[in-house]
User: Fold this.
Amino acid sequence: MDILFFIGLAIIGGFIGGKVSNRLKFPAVVGYLIAGLILGPSFLNIFSLERLGSLNVINDIALALVAFIIGSEMRLCILRKMGKGIIAIILSETFGAFLLVFIGVYLLTHKLHIALIFGAMAPASAPAGTAVVLQEYRAKGPLTNALYAVVGLDDGLAIMIYAFAAALAKLSIVGSTVGSTKSFLEIIKGPVIEILGAIVLGALLAICLGYFMRKIRSKKEVLAISLAIIMLCAGLANRFHFSLILSNLTMGMVFVNLYLFANRRSAESINFISLPIYIIFFVIAGAHLQINLLPAMGLLGLIYIFCRTFGLIGGAFLGATVSKSKAVIRKYLGLGILSQAGVAIGLAIMATREFSSLGAVGKNLSILVINNIAATTIIFEIIGPIATKFAIRQAGEIGKGKIKI
Assistant:
């Protein structure tokens, strides 16, 4: 079948799944994921793994839009009101997840390299899962602002944690030698360049977008130019191996703080056409989830789920308490950041490539990582959006925003 057939089927299937999910009082994104799960290899196999590979461009488009919209919510005036608290929360929840998973996996396996890599997977979140729920329910308030900031920034920190953890894990496997020390420096150099490059790229394109926004007034032209710059940012990020999410996040953040009025017009135009793209994205994500991987998860996967969940929730609570953040942030922020997908899967694939060449020990680590992260993603992609809805409902922030997908 032509690829357009599959795109149309994804939109229809996801739309129906979203409506059913809403009827059951769940976020629509859960319905999108389940529709993809049914259409994917686990059940009907209409979306085979080979076919899913040809739809990857949709993933990049959706992630670019989500990252830009999240960045557009991060106005400095709001971040200043949060003060140092938001930094404390991000550091606390990120390292809380890393440390708790590291300890749990080490106590189970007594293998330092396995504990380091699984710990490094834990902080990575799924900005799309959280952001789409916040927009669907038109959430607005201190908790919503904090969620946008946390899911927008913690992935960059997660990439850095992985870089150091991977270097230490390799040292643990091959031994501390001159060659391995050089390897350590080479490993951390890549992520540093990836993050700094993404920030510079996003900032420069934000200025370009602002220049065009000053010249045009038509809503159609605003949409065309906004999409063009976002796609340019995503394409250049992929070309130079920068973080696609961080580059578009930076662009949105710089744009909203330099050109506030223009940003409102841009964000509104993008939200107007974003629903079908988000539906396709989550249907494809759901199709990638393979139920047959769940038995392979085993005790290691269960410990990962348990420790990551309590590490994020406990870390967010600790950071918010220490920084004396508002009560709704202390109580509920951790529940809104449980989703995990793209970045974690990407890091798992990276670990598989890096460690599979390090003998039998490295190959065993590669198998453990890819199977367990793929399996646990199924759990977190389902419970994450549900927990986010619960958090914003308990905080009383549903229905207070103006933009709705």
